[in-house]
Structure formats: structure tokens, C-alpha cells
């Protein structure tokens, strides 16, 4: 089963920073990388920092607290003190809107 939910306008996204969305009470951040949209949990797996406040470079986001790095395409941790990936959410872009499968 899937639960595709409209969370944002594609035009609201931009490269170099994440934007937070909260569909159905979830805390998720959207990233635009080379014209593709990706979504992960917004909460860092190392502490209480939000990845929407992180520094984005290419497909990587660096946590603003201790510089843990995640690959926004997969949620994998790729550097710093983080040891657990962030959850990655399925994304589709249709009709100028960004949709997440919240199942
Ligand atoms: Fe994100 Fe420590 S809270 S790296």
C-alpha cells in the first residue's frame, strides 16, 4: 500500500538548503539536488539538530551541531560522529507538486 501525500510546491525548493515539511505530524526535510527531489527525516540521528538547518553541498547535508554528514539521496551517514542513517522517504514530483509516500 502507498500513501502519496502532497507536501510542497516544487517551486518552493532550491538547491543548497533543505526545507522542512510536517505531513501527518512527520518531521521531514526536502532537498533539491541537480533537479531531483529527495526526502529524509529532519531530525539528526546523533542529537537534537534539524537537518533543514544544515549545510548542503551537492548530495550531502552536514548537521549544524557536530558536522555529521548524510547522503540525502539514501539517508546514509557518510562522515562525522553519526553512526545511524536517517530514514529516507519515497518522493515523486507530479503537476509541480512534491509528493511523499508516507507508508
Ligand atoms: Fe547531528 Fe550531532 S546532532 S551530528
Percent range for helical residues? Answer: under 10%
Q: From the 3D coordinates, which CATH architecture would you assign?
A: 3-layer Sandwich
Order of helices and strands: EEEEEEEEEEE
Separation, N- and C-terminal Cα atoms: 7 Å
Radius of gyration from the alpha-carbon trace, in angstroms: 13 Å
What structural class do you assign from the helix and strand content? Answer: mainly beta
Name of the CATH first level: Mainly Beta
Full CATH superfamily name: Rieske [2Fe-2S] iron-sulphur domain
Indicate the proportion of strand residues.
Answer: 35-45%
Enumerate the distinct ligands: FE2/S2 (inorganic) cluster
What is the topology, as strand order, of the major beta sheet? Answer: 2-3-4-9
Largest sheet: 4 strands, antiparallel
Number of domains: 1
What best-fitting shape do the alpha-carbon axes yield? globular
Q: How many beta-strand elements?
A: 11
Low-confidence region ranges: none
Mean pLDDT: 97
Please count the helical segments.
0
CATH fold call: Rieske Iron-sulfur Protein
Amino acid at each position: 500500500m502507498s500513501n502519496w501525500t502532497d507536501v510542497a510546491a516544487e517551486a518552493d525548493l532550491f538547491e543548497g538548503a533543505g526545507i522542512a515539511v510536517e505531513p501527518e505530524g512527520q518531521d521531514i526535510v526536502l532537498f533539491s539536488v541537480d533537479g531531483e527531489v529527495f526526502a529524509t527525516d529532519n531530525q539528526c540521528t546523533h542529537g537534537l539538530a534539524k537537518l533543514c538547518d544544515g549545510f548542503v553541498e551537492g548530495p550531502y547535508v552536514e548537521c549544524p551541531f557536530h558536522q555529521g554528514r548524510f547522503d540525502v539521496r539514501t539517508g546514509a551517514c557518510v562522515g562525522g560522529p553519526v553512526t545511524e542513517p536517517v530514514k529516507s522517504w519515497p518522493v515523486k514530483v507530479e503537476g509541480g507538486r512534491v509528493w511523499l509516500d508516507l507508508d
